[in-house]
Structures are given as C-alpha cells and as structure tokens.
Design goal:
By secondary structure, this protein is an alpha+beta fold. It is 37% helix and 17% strand.
C-alpha cells in the first residue's frame, strides 16, 4: 500500500485507516552500515499501535486480529521495527508499510478449505502403464544371453 506521508494517517484497507494519533514512534541508533553517521543518527524506527483499539473495527475483526496477531501483541500493542535503511525517513516508510501489511493480512478472510479430489481413471491407467513399462525395462536388464 502506498504510504505517502510518514506522519499522516495509515491506510490499511480501502475501508480501514489507522489515525496518525494512534501511531507511536520511537527512534534509536541503528546497527549496520552507515559509516560515521551510524553513531550519531537515530535512524532505527519502532512503530507501535494498539491494534484492537483501531476505530472502525467490528467485533469480528477485533477477534480475528487478536487471534492472528496474538503472539506478536504485548499488552495489546503491535510493534514493528525497521532499521534496514540508513535514513530515518525510509525506515519510517518501511515500518508503516510493514504495519499496514501485517494488519491487512491478519484481517483477510481465511482461505477456503481445500476440496479433496480423486485421481481420474485416465491418470490411474497412465500410472499403471508407466509402472509396467518400467518393470519390463528392469526385467530386460537382468537377462544375460
């Protein structure tokens, strides 16, 4: 999802938007590349949101979020960390995109159950024919004339 303004509201789905006031930001020094700037710039970003309190969620959606994101929630707060870029702005954009993706995937309806199928008669016959041909080949190998 495109996230134009790193300080604005966060669109998750066409109907669900997380208000900017609900997004909590923390910045710290990032490890990894960056040269001298890595010691001075707070480029690592942590984005936190109370996902179960997002306005516009139905009780069913809240239950689905709690079920699917339960292992990642700490006191109802989902935290996303981003430190792969050198610039704080790019890390903020990455964290927003990851948060939108995580909440969007958690809200998505489950996939329909797989319908069990049986092999067709033709495929069974082809398999038996192939097995017989393989057996004939092995039988020919063993004979010494």
């Amino acid at each position: 999802m495109p996230t134009d303004d790193p300080a604005g509201d966060l669109p998750v789905t066409p109907r669900l938007v997380v208000p900017a006031a609900m997004l909590g930001w923390r910045f710290s020094r990032s490890s990894g590349p960056g040269g001298q700037g890595v010691n001075t710039a707070d480029s690592r970003v942590e984005l936190s949101v109370r996902v179960l309190e997002i306005p516009g969620l139905t009780e069913h959606q809240q239950a689905r979020l709690a079920d699917r994101l339960g292992a990642r929630l700490v006191d109802g707060v989902l935290t996303i960390a981003a430190s792969e870029h050198r610039q704080q702005l790019r890390n903020r954009e990455a964290a927003r995109a990851r948060l939108a993706m995580a909440v969007g995937q958690a809200l998505a309806p489950p996939a329909p159950p797989r319908r069990k199928t049986k092999p067709t008669r033709g495929s069974k016959e082809r398999q038996i024919t192939a097995e017989k041909q393989r057996g004939q080949l092995k039988k020919q190998r063993g004979t010494l004339d």
